[in-house]
Design a protein that fits this description.
alpha+beta, Jelly Rolls, 8-stranded antiparallel beta sheet, two-stranded antiparallel ribbon, 6 helices
Length: 240
């Protein structure tokens, strides 16, 4: 069995979108994760991450060397000022890829799950330019919803965020059973394996050390980077 990346996390290389938004800044698609903590390790460029959480709205500076992370439920928007690049480390590898993220579309879209999925899904089998255009439309719709949500939070405080969280939970609810199955077989299993290894060491048994392995990662499919929510990204697939 190929060992998981440390901590059952995943890693990707992200070049934040430099597309201009309606409010004059350049950047990605605001969203939250429902069960996964996310971390940034900034490798180049400058920018900010705008967040909305129980602590309110905040802006944090990002530049080479910055390490920042936030827990599930934190709405975040990456802003690029000068070629912002970062490594993104995601908790619960597999769950974010399975739909853990919910974009900040306006409330009328979020209340209709079919409309939400249609707006969030990029087309397949089309040209690079067409996917870029669709990603930009998706981003712009989420930015519009994010700006309304920030204004609503200024007026109604935490209730505005709680209302959004309820809508987000309704969006992902049909997927939770499959997430649990995936998590049980990966992250939870890895944690249980560590517990078994601790028990073995406590009893003087070192047999598991004989199963040591080195894993090298390989880049994702050749060609242009994928269109992620926040920018163009490259992921790695482990191989034994």
């Amino acid at each position: 069995m190929t060992p998981l990346f440390p901590g059952g996390t995943s890693i990707s290389d992200l070049a934040v979108y430099d597309w201009e938004c309606a409010d004059g800044v350049h950047g990605g698609t605001p969203h939250l994760h429902t069960v996964s903590t996310e971390a940034y390790v900034v490798t180049a460029g400058r920018g900010e991450v705008h967040t909305l959480s129980a602590a309110g709205f905040a802006r944090d500076r990002l530049e080479a060397g910055t390490v920042l992370w936030f827990s599930p439920g934190t709405i975040h928007r990456l802003v690029s000022e000068d070629g912002l690049r970062l490594l993104v480390i995601m908790q619960n590898a597999g769950l974010p890829e399975a739909g853990d993220a919910v974009l900040t579309f306006p409330a009328d879209v979020l209340r209709d799950r079919d409309a939400y999925l249609a707006a969030a899904t990029l087309p397949v089998g089309v040209s690079e330019d067409e996917r870029a255009a669709a990603a930009r439309v998706r981003r712009d719709l989420a930015v519009a919803g994010f700006r309304r949500l920030v204004a609503d939070a200024e007026e109604r405080g935490g209730q505005a965020l709680a209302d959004f969280h309820r809508l987000a939970a309704a969006i992902v609810r049909p997927r939770v059973a499959s997430w649990k199955e995936l998590w049980d077989g990966t992250v939870a299993a890895e944690t249980e394996r560590t517990g078994s290894q601790l028990d073995a060491l406590a009893g003087g048994d070192a047999a598991h050390l004989g199963q040591a392995a080195v894993v090298r990662t390989t880049p994702g499919p050749p060609g242009p980077r994928a269109f992620g929510m926040c920018g163009r990204l490259r992921t790695w697939a482990p191989r034994p």
